[in-house]
Give the backbone structure.
Amino acid sequence: MTDDELNPKQPPGPVTVDHVADACRCYPGETVTFYTRVSVWQPVAGFTLGITLPASLVPGDTCAPPDVGDLLPVVAFEDGARHLSWRVARGVGAGTRWEFQVQAQVTPVEGEVTLASRAVVTVEDAEAHSFEERATVAVSDQGSYLRYLPALYQSDKLMGRLLMLLESFWAPIKGQIDHMHAYFDPRMTPPEFLPWLASWLNLALDERLSEAQQRRLIQSMASLYRKRGTRQGLQEYLEIYTGEWAEVIEHRANDLRLGPEARLGPGVALGKGNWPHTFTVVLRLSPISVPADDEGERARRELERRRTLEAIIEAEKPAHTGYTLHIESKV
């Protein structure tokens, strides 16, 4: 864990804005999608998000969170650029994150140009704070493959456009090959690749786990294998599955001790209060949420959860040990 993760920096204002494009390079006729995230760190009375697109980017479909109110932005034209804006005219609490998407089509350009899009969030308060982020896309009127041909063809516009078309077809495949390492990283691999990645570790993923839990389990599996049969390994596995830290109480053979004072007789306890090779697992979990009038479904799901926890303990504990599982309701 990095120092920034341990001691996160305080954001410079009540909100922050992140603005990125799904491609850093494209050609005329292609579509680029801009993703904008507004993160609210302090309660605000409202805000306005404005996204500016240059004249060479023609906006298409947009997507906004349902909580915004007006899902379609207000579009205005100024100095040849297009301005899209969403206004949230109500209070927004801290910890809120909203994501917006804008698709745009690239129009023909001459030569090599860099198109810049800007996202600005203006907080509605007395001082009207504004926060800005930019995203750029490089656009070329001919394919980059042209540089691999003899100089005779490099001035041929028709050849440049044909290669640009071929490069557009091959770009997704090339991107997958260039980023092949990301498919083997549980933090970055697409969700549909998680079961395949888990199979490399001889792990069958539980479909009831959230995507975040599945990613964390795969990432921790090598470490958990090394800790299998230990208290820490069992606690970490249960914490990934339940989100709560388990209390493990070990019961040792304290009554019979070897030594010069050891004597056979009524003072030697071989059974009462003497439970060697056993332990107790105590988990404090939140009640399962079901409709108030469906106690049968609650009992079924609680039994299912208990059996899953028992299966985890059976797999992680030493083979010769026994255990008792106590699940307490978390208030």
About this structure: The domain at 8-141 is CATH 2.60.40.1530 (Immunoglobulin-like). The first strand starts at residue 15 and ends at 21.
